Amino acid sequence: MSIYFWIIYAVIIISAIVALEATSLLWAAIAFVVLLSEIALVYFGIEMPVLGGVQLAIYAGGVTILVLFAIMMIGESYKKPQSKAVGAKVLSLIILILGTAVSFFSAIDTFSYRIYPTQVLGTVFVEKYSFFTIILGFIVSAILYMANAIISKKREAE
């Protein structure tokens, strides 16, 4: 397993935790977009670009735009009750650390230490994945445009 996957898996875990723990539904939805986009990167990394493209276009794109649109139309945020479950959080952290350590040490023999020049990586990215990057750019632009329009309408109504 290369360091690429470890970084992506770390971002997936962090964005999943943020999506679950965020008090604002908007930030939870943004973390959800990051989570789904990182899952698409895993698909690209295991050389399944069609599945990665579907993940980006349908899940990270369409479904998340619908969720964000619904959240912005409702305009409410979820207030989590204040709980004192410190023990559960500590136990979750311990399980996460132990699981990561076991995964790391069981996969340490499979690391590949090949280092590719940056130019080769850039060429491969542009040749294989530039189309999906353009789609992702349009998706992000649509989300920002929609958010701006909704916020402008709310300010005018006030």
Automatic annotation (TrEMBL):
Bilayer topology term: Multi-pass membrane protein
Cell membrane found in the keyword field: yes
Main location, first listed in the record: membrane
GO terms, molecular function: NADH dehydrogenase (ubiquinone) activity; quinone binding
Name of this protein: NADH-quinone oxidoreductase subunit J
UniProt family annotation: Belongs to the complex I subunit 6 family.
The reaction(s) this protein catalyses: a quinone + NADH + 5 H(+)(in) = a quinol + NAD(+) + 4 H(+)(out)
InterPro entries reported in the protein's UniProt record: NADH_UbQ/plastoQ_OxRdtase_su6 (IPR001457), Nuo/plastoQ_OxRdtase_6_NuoJ (IPR042106)
Domain of life: Bacteria
Organism of derivation: Desulfurobacterium thermolithotrophum (strain DSM 11699 / BSA)
This protein's UniProt keywords: Cell membrane, Membrane, NAD, Quinone, Transmembrane, Transmembrane helix, Ubiquinone
Entry-linked Pfam families: Oxidored_q3 (PF00499)
Class of the enzyme per the UniProt entry, highest EC level: translocase
Main function: NDH-1 shuttles electrons from NADH, via FMN and iron-sulfur (Fe-S) centers, to quinones in the respiratory chain. Couples the redox reaction to proton translocation (for every two electrons transferred, four hydrogen ions are translocated across the cytoplasmic membrane), and thus conserves the redox energy in a proton gradient.
